[in-house]
Design goal:
Shape: globular
Number of domains: 1
Largest sheet: 9 strands, antiparallel
Order of helices and strands: EHEEHHEHHHEEHEEEEEEEEHHEE
Strand content: 15-25%
Number of helices: 9
Strand order of the largest sheet: 1-16-15-14-11-8-7-3-2
CATH class: Alpha Beta
Bound molecules: flavin-adenine dinucleotide, magnesium ion
Distance between the termini: 6 Å
Number of strands: 16
CATH topology: T-fold
Length: about 350
């Protein structure tokens, strides 16, 4: 894989404001940006056959089909996305993940096979990242209030809750597809991997329907399917961490080899709040319980599988540039783009 470094001027001042998920405004803005995205980066001459946008998985999901489009495929996609949401969301009390969390320290819980497989993959990524990616981060996410009203907790609260964050305390039984969290108060959070899984499921539905040209965007988890017009690579914009949503700091060219590829970014800019003039984002160090602070603003992974790209972008963001790079280099067929605080962009 090639290497080059591009020195960029530092972009404008950091965005101000509170918690970033303001549904109606951001959704409309997102739709506008998505249209810009397709026409500028999908290829200026491509015609969108059919496109549908819905709010699922706590984010804006847009599926655009460029040929052989039919409404049923879009329906099937959003039925599947809602199914995944209902199984894996921590915000839905009856989901498999919520049931596992409610039974932490008490009993093992029988879950859907897909949920079981995804948790097993999350454990795999925890292992290969040395625990930087940890699906038991739930109690820390909840303590900081990222699912409702965020604020900076007391150090004693963080210390108490950190004892519950440990992926080796997940017990998986593949024969019975049951999951057990050893300690009461533990909680799974699949927010860093499930959107990728959902994007792979979406790509499967689209390709199985014989559609050879499409783009999926599940809140920043991008999948490009098949060939771009004139057999050219797709061009996917990487969000400028310091810019407005939809402004790109870099554009990567992605070839799919007739199948699909995914481009996923994890960054400090995606979800955050400000308190006493300081910014706190949603990706946590499982060893300190604080939002990760290193020289990185974002990590983008380009891979033939969106679940891999999702998990690895979060893992590498937590690991930091040097150790993260070692992990990337140990995996065949993936590329990465690092955006640093000083504006430098590095690609592998
Ligand atoms: P990523 O880097 O991919 O993931 C960051 C997220 O992973 C954090 O938000 C946290 O949840 C978790 N995390 C933090 N640190 C770590 C770590 N060290 N290791 C592993 N995981 C970590 N959001 C809502 O506001 N409302 C909803 O109803 C809602 N429902 C959802 C349902 C599902 C099934 C999923 C998957 C997500 C849902 N979300 C919801 C969350 C939402 O869309 C998140 O913003 C998203 O999953 C985070 O993705 P990202 O690409 O921004 O960042
Ligand atoms: Mg992720």
């Amino acid at each position: 894989m090639g290497y080059h470094e591009i020195k960029r001027p530092r972009a404008g001042a950091l965005r101000r404001g509170g918690f970033v998920y303001k549904f109606s405004f951001s959704f409309i803005l997102f739709l506008i940006c998505h249209i810009i995205f397709i026409f500028y980066f999908g290829s200026c001459t491509q015609k969108v056959n059919l496109s549908r946008a819905e709010f699922v998985l706590g984010t804006n999901c847009v599926v655009s089909l460029f040929e052989n489009a039919n409404v049923q495929v879009l329906k099937d996609v959003f039925v599947r996305l809602r199914e995944i949401d209902n199984l894996m969301s921590v915000n839905i009390p009856a989901s498999d993940v919520s049931r596992i969390n409610a039974a932490a320290g008490v009993e093992s819980v029988k879950v859907n096979e897909d949920v079981f497989e995804l948790i097993a993959m999350a454990v795999y990524f925890a292992e290969i990242s040395g625990g930087a990616f940890d699906p038991t981060i739930g109690p820390i996410v909840n303590l900081w209030g990222f699912n409702n009203n965020p604020s900076v907790p007391l150090q004693e609260e963080i210390d108490a809750v950190l004892k519950l964050v440990n992926w080796t305390d997940i017990v998986l039984d593949s024969d019975s597809t049951t999951v057990f969290l050893k300690k009461p108060g533990m909680a799974l959070d699949l927010g860093a991997i499930a959107k990728g899984y959902a994007a792979d499921e979406t790509a499967k539905i689209i390709t199985n329907a014989g559609i050879n040209r499409a783009i999926v965007n599940l809140g920043g988890n991008i999948v490009v399917i098949g060939k771009n017009k004139d057999d050219r690579p797709w061009r996917v914009g990487i969000q400028d961490p310091n810019g407005e949503r939809g402004s790109y700091i870099e554009v990567v060219e992605v070839s799919t080899n007739d199948s699909y590829m995914s481009v996923v970014t994890s960054g400090a800019y995606e979800r955050f709040f400000e308190q006493d003039g300081k910014r706190y984002h949603h990706i946590f160090s499982p060893s300190t319980g604080y939002p990760v602070k290193n020289e990185l603003l974002s990590v983008t992974i380009i891979a033939p599988n969106s679940m891999y790209a999702d998990a690895l972008s979060t893992a590498v963001f937590v690991m930091g540039y040097e150790i993260g790079l070692e992990l990337i280099e140990s995996i065949e067929g993936i590329e990465a783009v690092f955006v640093f605080e000083d504006g430098v962009i590095t690609k592998f």
